[in-house]
Structures are given as structure tokens and as C-alpha cells.
Amino acid sequence: MSTPPALHAIDVSIIYGQGDTAVRALDTVNLQIGAGEIVAMMGPSGSGKTTLLMVLGGLLQPTLGEVQIRGQSLTGLSETQRARLRLTLMGFIFQSYNLFPALTALENVQLALELKRRPSREAAPLLEQVGLGHRRHSYPAKLSGGEKQRVAIARALAGDPGILLADEPTAALDTKHGMAVVELLRTIAHEQGRAIVMVTHDPRVGPMSDRLVTIADGKLVAAPVQYGLKSDAREHA
Ligand SMILES: Nc1ncnc2c1ncn2[C@@H]1O[C@H](COP(=O)(O)OP(=O)(O)OP(=O)(O)O)[C@@H](O)[C@H]1O
């Protein structure tokens, strides 16, 4: 039997609101992401990128269709069960880092380890893995944007998740630091076998990913240029 994909959206639609004010934010989306694959998701503002990321992360239930994580359907799970899956299988990375300003880099990661109930894992090696071992005792205010995002990535790795979901992780960074963060995420996907989905507005991120998924008006569309290893258009035609 073949291994199920890390993430699988099957005919997913999301309709916000009802009646005249209803918005179809996602329209019959089909998407598979495998372990060890880094996928960039692009599209105009309001096209449904964040909504799709939230659905893939089990933070939002599809109006129609379903999401499977490693072959397990999220449909019918309680909020507590979905929260447990998120805690054990997923890490989240945000544009604005969301670090605790009163905690050092090390303490930010340690707190995540405690919340994820991972007493056997240590924060310092996670910071070293993202190239920040030497800044472990620095507070976020003393770190550059790129360094803050690296702490946020170390924190997202605290639970040793198979899946990382990143919402515009480079949006607040200059080109050099932004590309270094994407390079780090790419290494994490390829060397550690994690599935990574990254929403981005930056056209330079697509070529650094294994696959570029383009979304317009809530639908996945074939990208004008296909990058990397696989083509989403081929896979989901
Ligand atoms: N909670 C909500 N209630 C109603 N409509 C919503 C809600 N969240 C998003 N929408 C609508 O759904 C559509 C998709 O929004 P979404 O935030 O997923 O787009 P996006 O591609 O991430 O946009 P951006 O690039 O601007 O962040 C938009 O039309 C948006 O106005």
C-alpha cells in the first residue's frame, strides 16, 4: 500500500456567510503535498490563500469536501481532536513572528517545547539548527527580522511536526534575509522529510520551491510557469 500524502485536500470548498452575502472563498480545491516537499502558494489578494492554509491546518472546517492528514480525515473530529492533531503533527509560522518579547530566543523555544509536552527535546539544538545558537540569550527586540523568523521556525519545529504551514514568512524581510529563510525551510523539508506549505506574494519564492500552486478566485489554476520537481496542474488535472 502506498504512503498517503502528508496533506490532502479533496474537493474542498469554503463558503463564508450565507444568502446574499455568502463568499465562496475556496471552490473545489484538490491538492496533495508529500513528505519532504516544499510548496509555494501564490495568488492575488483575496484569492483564498490564507483560507486554504487554515483549512489544511484544521483551523477551519470545509463547507464541502474534506482534508486528510497522513490519510486521516479531519471530518467528524471534535475541536479537541483537531487541536491535538495540530499540536502533534503541525507547526505554524507567521509573517509577524509572534514571539514573546519578554522571553529570550531560547526561552521562546523552551516554552513551545513545554506546550508541546516534549521534555526530551532541547531548545538549544533547535536554535543551532536554524543558525542561531549564538543568539540564544537575546531578546526578540535585539534580533533582526530574519533572526526573529529563524527563532519562530525553531519554535515551530519544537513538536517535531511532519507538516509546517507558513503564512507569508518572508513578507516582513528584505530580499537577502527573506531568501535565506526560504532556503532554510527548503533544507528542513528536504533533509528532514517535512511537508511545507508557504503562502507568499514574492515571485522569487516559487523557483526555490519544489512546486508552485497558484490560486485565483478560490480555485487552483495552472501556473504560467511550472517550477521545480512537480507540476500541480499535471497532478490535479
Ligand atoms: N472570516 C471571513 N468572513 C467572510 N469572508 C471572508 C473571511 N475570511 C476571508 N474572507 C473572504 O474570503 C476570500 C479569501 O480570503 P483570504 O484571506 O483567504 O485571501 P488571501 O488570498 O489570503 O488574501 P491576502 O493575500 O490579502 O491575505 C476574500 O474574498 C475574503 O474577503
From TrEMBL:
Gene3D superfamilies registered for this protein in UniProt: P-loop containing nucleotide triphosphate hydrolases
SMART domains in alphabetical order: AAA (SM00382)
Protein's UniProt keywords contain Nucleotide-binding: yes
CDD domains reported in the protein's UniProt record: ABC_MJ0796_LolCDE_FtsE
UniProt cross-references to SUPFAM superfamilies, sorted A to Z: P-loop containing nucleoside triphosphate hydrolases
Keyword Nucleotidyltransferase: no
InterPro entries: AAA+_ATPase, ABC_transporter-like_ATP-bd, ABC_transporter-like_CS, ABC_transpr_LolD-like, MacB-like_ATP-bd, P-loop_NTPase
Alphabetized Pfam families for the sequence: ABC_tran
Keywords: ATP-binding, Nucleotide-binding, Transport
GO cellular component terms, A-Z: plasma membrane; transmembrane transporter complex
Molecular-function GO terms, alphabetical: ATP binding; ATP hydrolysis activity; transmembrane transporter activity
TM annotation in the entry: none
Top-level taxon of the source organism: Bacteria
Domain ABC transporter: from-to ranges: 7-237
PANTHER family: ABC TRANSPORTER, IMPORT ATP-BINDING PROTEIN
Family that this chain belongs to: Belongs to the ABC transporter superfamily. Macrolide exporter (TC 3.A.1.122) family.
Designated name of the protein: ABC transporter ATP-binding protein
Species of origin: Thiospirillum jenense
